[in-house]
């Protein structure tokens, strides 16, 4: 029985870390915590663990606020990139990065944007749903347009990441 309680404690710790990093909302945190407290079988543990692990896609190691992105980096410079596939990562440090979104596939495309002391500008077509989970630290996330009607079958751009002393601006093409 002690091992069972240890498993529940590990799940609670993982969930608390996700909440502290804003990877889950308060409602999601409370709902999952309630499920953890009601767990009675190993199967229930594995189900809740799977749900919690799915939320880890937005998380970065605790020691790193910003993590380099590989080929989509702009350090002390200006760069333009085009989104060509799903789940791409972009990193800006003391520079500017213009990310152009053209043809998104149906469904959700995840764009991970990290910026420190820079500017990231995301330009996309009008008929794209936007969900943003970027966490600003002494920064701003700007979407300067009026909300309009978007087709229910339109692709979704899910923007995650962090901004530290930076601005992330999302613009729609005319």
Tell me about this structure:
- The chain has helices spanning 2-20, 26-38, 42-54, and strands spanning 73-75, 78-83, 88-93, 96-101, 108-116, 119-124, 129-137, 140-142, 156-164, 167-172.
- α1 packs parallel to α3 (42-54).
- The model is unreliable at 58-69 (pLDDT under 50).
- The strands form two sheets. It has a five-stranded parallel beta sheet with strand order 1-3-5-9-7, with no helix packed on it. A five-stranded parallel beta sheet has the order 2-4-6-10-8, with no helix packed on it.
- It has 174 residues and is α/β, with parallel strands linked by helices.
- The protein is 26% helix and 36% strand.
Task: Give a summary of the structure in a few sentences.
This protein is of the alpha/beta class and 174 residues long. It has helices at residues 2-20, 26-38, 42-54, and strands spanning 73-75, 78-83, 88-93, 96-101, 108-116, 119-124, 129-137, 140-142, 156-164, 167-172.
Topology:
Elements: H1 2-20, H2 26-38, H3 42-54, E1 73-75, E2 78-83, E3 88-93, E4 96-101, E5 108-116, E6 119-124, E7 129-137, E8 140-142, E9 156-164, E10 167-172
Parallel strand pairs: 1-3, 2-4, 3-5, 4-6, 5-9, 6-10, 7-9, 8-10
Helix pairs in contact: 1-2, 1-3
Search tags:
alpha/beta, 5-stranded parallel β-sheet, 3 helices, 174 residues, single chain, elongated
Sketch the major β-sheet.
Answer: 5 strands, parallel
The total beta strand count reads 10
Strand-pairing-aware structural class: alpha/beta
Uncertain residue ranges: 58-69
Q: Percent range for helical residues?
A: 25-40%
Global geometry: elongated
Task: Give the averaged pLDDT, no decimals.
Answer: 77
